Fold this sequence. Notes:
By secondary structure, the chain is of the alpha/beta class. It is 27% helix and 11% strand.
Amino acid sequence: MGVTTVTAARILKGQMDGKPGEETVLTMDEFPYLALSKTYNVDRQVPDSAGTATAYLCGVKANAKTVGVSAAAEYDVCNTTFGNEVHSVLHRAKAQGKSVGIVTTTRVQHASPSAAYAHSVSRYWYADADMSKEDARDGCTDTALQLIRNTDIDVILGGGRKYMTPRGTPDPEYPTDGSQNGTRKDGKDLIQAWLDARRSKGAKYVWNKEQLDAVDVKSTNYLMGLFEPKDCKYEVNRNTTTDPSIVEMTEKAIQILRKNPKGFYLFVEDE
């Protein structure tokens, strides 16, 4: 959030409390450390959320439409990925023994969240079906695969089911809508692969609000929740019975992550 957005929130909060507004103190104003970050793209005047996310999560300016790589990597040129990978604050937090998580109302493979764990010269490589044969041959991997392989993320909540399952797999929420089916060409079920690798560590997968509400945070150390085939619905269109809100997802994530005595890092995005 920029200065104007934070200022508007501060004024609104104050006025909702019957005050002028400007004098209001937000919770984030009381954080022990605050900073501003430049998030421009190297190759264009108007940035996109992939390059900007790389800037504020990894501390390195990048080209538009790329995530988790420096500006030496060119958009959509696979072989420029290697040797130009940069690591995010989420990755560094995990390396220090902290628990880490991602909560978003977009698909979890989208530009902003993926900059926390992926290294890709194309923000659009959600699944292997979105890549060319040449890109795969040259060693590049899709964002969904990197989600479960790169960094051991404790909590993953958002949308993006269809990029995690084999092509033609019916969606559990929209089983008769073929456009919501799984898209993976490699035949891999990444949700099952993620669960199998962590089942002994208290891992759980959910895809609707009822299941999320039922998660026992005391016995759950890893949680993946994918609540739509693509992006989650906007709040005004959200089915409050079947789809959790950004607040509900964030609360559940914190309840799990805060069990770590070494602390935690949580990325939260509401689009």
